[in-house]
Specification:
Two copies of one chain form a homodimer. The first copy, chain A, is an all-alpha fold and 323 residues long. Helices cover 75% and strands 1% of the residues of chain A. Chain A contains 17 helices and two strands. In chain A, a hairpin with a 2-residue loop joins strand 1 and strand 2. In chain A, helix 4 runs antiparallel to helix 5, helix 4 crosses helix 9 and helix 5 packs parallel to helix 8. Chain A is globular and about 60 Å long. The N terminus of chain A is likely disordered. Chains A and B meet through helix 5, helix 7 and helix 8 of A and helix 5, helix 7 and helix 8 of B.
Chain lengths: 323, 323
């Protein structure tokens, strides 16, 4: 991964290496073909942002490395489990350049695989022997599910901005929050410090997800690992579309078809162009940058430490990335 | 529920009433139609055997009632979550006389509902603030998923008896074990006592599941809440079928078609009759009675207490019931 050269990853490079090993060991293997596929899925990886937050937060408060590793692995395992079920729910056929489980296995086995990964995640987090950490984890799982259900409900609907923020908190903010918070919890009991890391994670997650949503308009299929306009095609209206709509409440033809889920590919392309031309993507990015600034401010009370510096860098990466 | 007149339920009747309230309060309500349906599903209930184990075990060791209630609710919530996903995986349209979620909602929403119930279960169990309890719970979730995957894999296969026992441990033994074990854990640190309750739960669960599997041959649709021969129709070969096969290794025509999943209703009925005539159902019940005896023996080290007496009665109920 080229991203490993970025300082906030490189300073936890050994941790991330141990994480890979722990994740691969933790894949349940009762079904060998499925086990192979789950390991591939884990190896395809992604950026490991959530465990990176846990590692840095844990280091800042001098938490026990073994326990940090367990909960970091639990967080990433939970994330993987939710992706397995998401891809099934969305009928997605590819993720991170790898065929999804639901493209290769019957629905039942995919449901159960996700469940098994949830179980494994719970087991990993329980290894840390810290009840508050486990509670934070359970809350995240609940919030993620609520977010997913909200997203399923709001398809083809011009929801309020408030609904949008609730949705992306569930989708990304919640687990970022937990990832940062539980790293701190393992090393300190100070509620101010734990709250600061919790807020940092939440705000970073929101910034990250908003940028993700803009990339669906501005990136290209090769960078993104999926075709652009994916959300619009699925009837998911994210921040740029909602900001655009707020300015032009009378829906023009193509956008109306997109919202209704009846758009042709030409109408989707036309809508993407209209939204980009309106400046809504840039305004969404400005909101993301503001969340990133707020995330940095949340770190004001956190002790000076290379980990803190890395977390600050992460807020800049979150809003500057192109994938 | 008529079963409430049975002593092992009546002595925890107040607990079970509080359980109902706690379960209904815990149903996530972000989607109102779905929330109503989930509450119906919980109200349809079933026997509440698992929380009954937790209540009795908790009482024996004088555990805090609030914490017992939380984990009992967590156990039943986990059980409900697994049933939601099971019904989806098996495409079952009715359970306990109530339409299943998957008969009423799109697949995606059913997957997410089950996940949400898992999350709620984890939250409830975490309320008890006891790490060993949470670990036991995570292990059960993992074992249940493994059992389900094993069952999915072994459809249309004459598996070994060993595989059968692994499967039913995952399906029922594991959560019975955890239900009894965590009740004890909340009130004692004595490993001998915890092990005894753990063994009791496991053995009772095995007895219970074997009887369940025989009822699929001997009950009727009205008592069972589903047509008899359900397992055979699904290609699931349970203990009576496996014992029958062990005696008559050359498969006769109808049974061969059943195993292959190509049987007509007449061939299923013919196979059920052949298995019943062979005495395999009675032999399966004898094995269940033996597990029930072993479960009683496991209680030998447990202190004399009305709860212990109730657990002994439960072993008799498990093998004498007709539904």
């Amino acid at each position: 991964m080229s991203t490993l050269t970025v300082p906030f990853f490189s300073t936890v490079e050994d941790d991330l290496q141990q994480l890979e090993e722990k994740l691969l060991q933790s894949v349940p293997v009762s079904h060998s073909t499925l086990g192979d596929r789950l390991r591939l899925l884990i190896q395809a990886g992604g950026k490991r942002l959530r465990p990176t937050l846990t590692f840095h937060a844990g280091r800042i408060y001098d938490a026990d490395p073994e326990r940090i590793l367990s909960v970091a692995a639990g967080i990433e395992m939970l994330h993987t489990a939710t992706l397995i079920h998401d891809d099934l729910v969305d009928n997605a056929l590819e993720r991170r350049g790898v065929t999804t489980l639901n493209a290769a296995f019957p629905m039942g086995l995919v449901v159960l695989s996700g469940d098994m990964m949830f179980a494994e995640a719970a087991r990993l987090v329980a290894e840390a022997d810290h009840v508050a950490v486990i509670r934070s984890f359970a809350r995240a799982l609940s919030e993620i599910c609520h977010g997913e259900i909200l997203q399923a409900q709001s398809k083809h609907t011009l929801t309020s901005l408030e609904d949008y923020y609730t949705r992306i908190y569930g989708k990304t903010g919640s687990l970022f929050r937990t990832a940062a918070e539980i790293g701190a919890m393992l090393g300190t009991d100070d509620p101010d410090q734990i709250d600061a890391m919790s807020e940092y994670g939440r705000l970073l997650g929101l910034a990250f997800q908003i940028v993700d949503d803009t990339l669906d308009f501005t990136s290209d299929a090769q960078h993104l690992g999926k075709p652009i306009g994916h959300d619009l095609r699925e009837g998911i209206l994210s921040l740029p579309a909602l900001l655009y709509h707020a300015d032009t409440p009378s829906l023009h033809g193509a956008f109306r078809q997109v919202v209704a889920g009846k758009a042709t590919e030409d109408q989707i392309a036309e809508t993407i162009e209209a939204i980009k031309r309106s400046g809504a993507v840039e305004r969404a990015l400005e909101i993301a940058r503001d969340y990133a600034r707020q995330a940095r401010r949340a770190l004001a009370v956190v002790p000076d430490h290379p980990g803190r510096q890395a977390l600050i860098e992460l807020t800049r990466f979150a809003v500057a990335r192109d994938r």
